[in-house]
């Protein structure tokens, strides 16, 4: 497991939004006065959708659905993002912390198996308050932090006692690839420390008697076209940290963007089924038993719900 430093700029306590350091960009923007950070967020809490979601891994969605809250804006901004509408802040509605707490309770009433927070790093401080208020009002569901893996260690530590389980991507082992696709050459180092911190905090992957996730870590590996070697390195890195005590989700659902990305023709191609099969075989060779794979046709399916403010507005 990598050593997680105790005294670095990434480990300063996440405080007020006057000099934001909630994500590894550490842009120190004064969001408290309405300025927008690198993530695109200002002093408001922006949500695009809050509803039951059925396209996560089976222990998260089950048959009832995951109570999923999609937040607007994103610290990472991958050039191939399938949720660009929300990651670029084009949709979303500003709500109060109390409204977010009420949304958690409403999702519980709808039968959600958990509260699934998608790309919430830029709103971590508000989420902590909302979760505490919801629990005081009777919210009993586990909270899942659904993340790109680009997380500040201090934010992860601040979420102790709020987050029960982590659904975390590990996208790049290569700094060059991370720079090319996400303008984040530090991503491999940051994500390695984030996985280690989340694993240390949540412990082994655990399901209840019904087979639903209660705590632990699920790591997603999205195979990108032509990047099998990098995906293998990602898998090896996480296995060195977690062994078989995490769940590994191997994803072939990469869908080329509707508009070609300039100077990146490789992103216009689908993932090779041969490469994906090789990645699965490698995971099995490592001895991974807690894992999920996707069928080859899943890239043709839509896992993206409409970001139409469903569940966001006051009832």
Low-pLDDT regions:
5-14
Strand content: 15-25%
Number of helices in the DSSP assignment? 9
Radius of gyration: 18 Å
**How many extended strands?**
10
Question: Biggest sheet, in brief?
Answer: 10 strands, mixed
Question: Would you give an account of this structure?
Answer:
Residues 5-14 have low confidence and may be disordered. Helices cover 30% and strands 16% of the residues. Helix 3 packs across helix 4 and helix 8 (228-242) runs parallel beside helix 9. Strands 1, 2, 3, 4, 5, 6, 7, 8, 9 and 10 form a ten-stranded mixed beta sheet that branches. The radius of gyration is 18 Å and the shape is globular. The chain is of the alpha/beta class and 315 residues long. The chain contains nine helices and ten strands.
Briefly say what this structure is:
The protein is built from 9 helices and 10 strands. The protein has 315 residues and is α/β, with parallel strands linked by helices.
């Amino acid at each position: 497991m990598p050593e997680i430093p105790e005294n670095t700029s990434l480990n300063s306590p996440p405080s007020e939004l006057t000099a934001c350091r909630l994500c590894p960009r550490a842009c120190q923007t004064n969001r408290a006065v309405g300025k927008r950070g690198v993530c695109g967020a200002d002093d408001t809490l922006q949500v695009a959708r809050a509803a039951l979601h059925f396209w996560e891994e089976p222990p998260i969605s089950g048959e009832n659905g995951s109570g999923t809250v999609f937040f607007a804006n994103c610290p990472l901004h991958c050039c191939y993002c399938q949720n660009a509408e929300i990651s670029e802040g084009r949709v979303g509605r500003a709500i109060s912390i109390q409204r977010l707490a009420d949304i958690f309770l409403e999702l519980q009433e709808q039968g959600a198996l958990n509260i699934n927070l998608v790309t919430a790093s830029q709103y971590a401080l508000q989420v902590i308050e909302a979760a505490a208020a919801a629990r005081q009002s009777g919210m009993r569901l586990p909270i899942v932090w659904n993340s790109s893996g680009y997380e500040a260690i201090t934010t992860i530590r601040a979420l102790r006692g709020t987050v029960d389980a982590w659904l975390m991507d590990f996208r790049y082992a290569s700094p060059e690839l991370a720079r090319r696709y996400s303008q984040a050459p530090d991503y491999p180092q940051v994500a390695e420390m984030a996985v280690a911190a989340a694993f240390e905090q949540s412990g082994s992957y655990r399901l209840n008697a019904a087979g639903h996730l209660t705590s632990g870590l699920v790591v997603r590996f999205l195979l990108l076209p032509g990047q099998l070697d990098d995906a293998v390195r990602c898998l090896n890195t996480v296995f060195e940290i977690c062994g078989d005590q995490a769940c590994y989700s191997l994803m072939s659902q990469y869908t080329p963007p509707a508009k070609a990305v300039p100077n990146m023709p490789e992103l216009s191609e689908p993932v090779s089924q041969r490469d994906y099969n090789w990645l699965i075989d490698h995971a099995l060779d490592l001895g991974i038993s807690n894992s999920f794979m996707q069928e080859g046709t899943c890239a043709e399916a839509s896992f993206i719900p409409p970001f139409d403010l469903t569940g966001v507005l006051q009832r």
